[in-house]
Amino acid sequence: MAEFNEEVKERRLKVLEMSLGTSVMHYMHDDNVTEVIVNPDGKLWVDTFDKGFQNTGIVLDSEETKRVIYAVADLSGQVIDLKEDPSLQADIPESRLFANCRFQAELPNIVEAPSFNIRKHSKQVFTLENYVKQGTMSKKQCEVIMEAIHAKKNIIAAGGTASGKTTLLNAILAEISKLDERVITIEDTKELKCTAQNKVALTTTDTVDMENLLRKTLRLSPNRIVVGEVRGKEALILMDAWSTGHRGGCSTVHSDSAADTLFRLEDLVSRVSLSTQQAGIARAIDVIVYIARRATSRKVEEVLAIDGWDREKGEYITHRLDAE
Questions:
Q1: Radius of gyration over alpha carbons of the chain, in Å?
Q2: Is the pLDDT at 121 greater than 80, yes or no?
Q3: Is 39 in the same domain as 107?
Q4: Domain of residue 258, CATH code
Q5: Model's pTM, two decimal places?
Q6: Could you report the per-residue pLDDT of 51-62, keeping only the tens digit for each?
Q7: Nearest-angstrom CA–CA distance, 44 and 116
Q8: Is residue 1 assigned to a domain?
Q9: Cα 149 from Cα 90, distance rounded (Å)
């Protein structure tokens, strides 16, 4: 994101608002909408927290879509090279007009007509109680997650793409924030909402990666270490920290099931370790909360406790915490 003075930034945000138009901005301001999508056919779709994908019935022509894409490019200080890479990845900063958003766009010739996705980072924090009220998790699941938080268990919120992992992590973090503890958050995109009184929020840069920030975190006297997403070599450092005195942390992992989360962590750890560190992973991770995206909704499918690693059998020892 290029740095502009506030006057220039405000002017470019206003241009983007005008390019999107009132019909699209209506969905940008709807807290239930998590993503705004325009396909190459011009149809405007939205992804909602409670009902999944919805066709709005609105159609944008290719010139309208293109204006939006170039307004975001201007806002982010980028130039789109139609020959080298006719696409755009950018962030829309939080302001009075917009929530913080991730923007991805494609232009011909990699698509037939301009298209874009705007992934919104919700200003609203859903609590675990909200999940129960909406039917996203059961009362039993809420209870065992609450117990894990207060018992300083290390928790992974796992799920597939657009399953709502980060929103779930923020709900867990909201409960952690009520406690009288020092919380250090680490992320590469500002999505975490921490209201703890004693906190430090760290964000990666082009020269400071997640691994580097994790090493710094260990010298900041954290009670709880919260990582937006584990997806690289930082996994080994986090597993070490979580299993050697820094309990009660939480993070997200992209996976296809609760059990698959453990194998995903093995893959990440093996990138920097000669062994897969199953015993270390089992010591570090206490609870996995798996959330899945269904056709019209999201659902917490499983809350799995990790009890250890059976060396003889070569398998993780686990049990369901949410079994009725």
A1: 21
A2: no
A3: yes
A4: 3.40.50.300
A5: 0.82
A6: 788 999 999 999
A7: 10
A8: no
A9: 34
